[in-house]
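Priority: medium. Attachment 1 of 2:
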């Protein structure tokens, strides 16, 4: 988490662009974590780590898949 916050700070400092960072065990779950980091910026500080199965399952229940991937 500390590394993610440091990266977030450096990117904002050097580019002026705020970024969300999602951490997980797979690319798909990382996309979900990144989406949550951006959606709930105030609560998460822009970083969400889903490596904990309890946090992962809670977030999976809270967000419909269409919100993350879009309608197809």
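Attachment 2 of 2:
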């Amino acid at each position: 988490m500390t590394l993610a916050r440091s990266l977030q700070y450096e990117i904002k400092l050097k580019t002026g662009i705020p970024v969300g960072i999602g951490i997980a065990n797979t690319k798909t779950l990382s996309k979900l974590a990144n989406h949550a980091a951006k959606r709930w910026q105030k609560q998460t500080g822009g970083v969400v780590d889903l490596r904990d199965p309890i946090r992962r399952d809670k977030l999976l229940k809270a967000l419909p898949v269409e919100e993350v991937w879009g309608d197809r």
